[in-house]
Design brief:
Strand content: 5-15%
Number of strands: 6
Radius of gyration: 17 Å
Number of domains: 2
Distance between the termini: 18 Å
CATH architecture of the largest domain: 3-Layer(aba) Sandwich
Largest sheet: 6 strands, parallel
Strand order of the largest sheet: 3-2-1-4-5-6
CATH topology of the largest domain: Rossmann fold
Structural class: alpha/beta
Helix content: 40-55%
Number of helices: 10
Order of helices and strands: EHHHHHEHEHHEHEEH
Length: 224
């Protein structure tokens, strides 16, 4: 029998342009302030996830946006707090996403998403990826948000993935690369924004998904 090889992904920031989505949603409410609010938003989202790990992601986004607007001295109407979740189905995939996923699938890799999202929202997002996804593990499924380990351990337990047949691919250093390193899961960091975090905890670093198949197979070979 042929061994099942898994490539798991964080979705937002890795396959889909999370920064564009957040900035665009904020810009709709506060014209000219989208870029500023994007830079403030990430820290608030992390904090809300830490405080309330069982909260649905759409509610996390709403509360993080309230805190972001408050920090920026802006008045956010309560009915407008849902704008980010409402926009998720329209957030664009990166230009190379579909091609990279298709190459992996054609080479025999199965594909999974380990995402800090709700089931309904990630369901809407999958139509943007252009390639079928075999498995999705959400924050709603495990009752926590990465960097908690439960996405990874749930996937490992449910699908029998082993370290010599599994590579995790993610842009998020804090949410994904750090916990994957702690769990000794082979990992590829997609450093889209030239972040200065320590690259040595990743098995490979790429600036985007171009050339991903070759890199994933090299990391997988090294793990054997």
């Amino acid at each position: 029998m042929t061994e099942t090889r898994w490539a798991t992904f964080d979705c937002f920031g890795t396959l889909v342009d999370w920064r564009h989505g957040i900035a665009t949603g904020a810009e709709l409410l506060f014209p000219g302030r989208g870029a500023q609010l994007l830079e403030l938003y990430g820290g608030h989202e992390r904090q809300v996830q830490r405080e309330t790990p069982g909260m649905r992601y759409r509610l996390v986004m709403a509360e993080a946006l309230r805190r972001t607007a408050r920090e920026a001295g802006l008045d956010l109407l309560e009915d407008d707090a849902s704008v980010l979740a409402a926009g998720i189905p329209y957030w664009p995939a990166f230009a190379e996403t579909a091609g990279a996923l298709a190459e992996l699938r054609d080479a025999g890799w199965r594909l999974a998403l380990l995402t800090n999202c709700d089931r309904d929202l990630i369901g809407e997002t999958q139509r943007r990826l252009g390639v079928p996804i075999d498995v999705v593990v959400t924050a709603e499924d495990v009752g926590s948000y990465k960097p908690d380990h439960r996405h990874f351990t749930r996937f490992e337990t449910a699908f029998g993935a082993t370290r010599d047949s599994w590579v995790h691919v993610a842009q998020g250093y804090f949410h994904d690369i750090v916990p994957a390193s702690e769990l000794a899961i082979p990992r590829v960091w997609i450093n889209r924004h030239a972040a200065t975090d320590d690259p040595s905890i990743a098995d490979a670093v790429l600036p985007d998904l171009n050339g991903l198949l070759k890199t994933v197979e090299q990391v997988n070979l090294s793990a054997r």
